[in-house]
Amino acid sequence: MHTTILVTGATGTVGREVVKQLSMLEGDIRVRAGVHSIIKGENLKRLPGVEVVEMDFEDPESLHAAFTHADKVFLITPFAADQIQMSKTLVDEAKKAGVKHIVKLSVIGADVEPGLQLGRWHREIEKYVEDSGIRYTFLRPTSFMQNYINYNAESIKKEGRFYGATGDGKVSYVDARDIAAVGVEALMSDEHVGKSYDITGSEALSNYEVAKLMSEVTGKQVDYMDVPDAAAKKGMTDHGIPDWMADAMIEVYSLYRSGKGAETTDTVERVTGRKPHTMRQFLEDHKDCFV
Fold this sequence. Notes:
Shape: globular
Domain NmrA-like: 2-274
Number of helices: 11
Mean pLDDT: 95
Protein name: SDR family oxidoreductase
Low-confidence stretches: none
Organism: Pontibacter anaerobius
Strand order of the largest sheet: 3-2-1-4-5-6-8
Radius of gyration: 19 Å
Strand content: 15-25%
């Protein structure tokens, strides 16, 4: 009997990696990659056993089709103003379709009171999943190593520097590949049902230390430039990021400056049986993105 796993947000940083790792599993696993645009999901079609389906929140029929016969769901929603409502809509569809298990990508600190705004949003979604009656597992990672590619690669290549507002605060960055590996284990084993996992890397580094590692790995000088919150927010809004999102990110940066992002966990090793990627390993694997 085959198992169908729907991955929503399948073209995102973590979603794409979850689809890739699921496609490599042995056994009768059918992976359904939910994407906002079929064109953006073209590369996923090349992976073995992967079906790409369009999920349009303005089109209930597309959501119904995506969830039909899905046994399990890896739930990712975009960082958007209507993220909570989108998530609730997906949980409702999962319940109607008879989905047996939801693994939700959340954020570290979601269970902290009063916590950060970002965490409160995710906790509201977590509670909705809990109340749905569907079995669940919550993954609560810290900042992704891949964010250095997503948000800093351009300035590193052009200027040899990247910008932030974290001061010398250390953060236990985690590789999206490790988040996905924990998620795949959670999807494939009942022992993770009802659990919440804080997921970090094995070390905490400041942006200054990351810049030093980048310089060593790439062979070119890379500097971190710390800027005030106001300048960081202006930089984000100048690039089209809405005020509410910029404010939420500034709140996260403030937490990092205070040193509260440095805690590490052994979740990756405990769940997957192997150590998480280090920042040096990540940079070596993605060196071409920065030079």
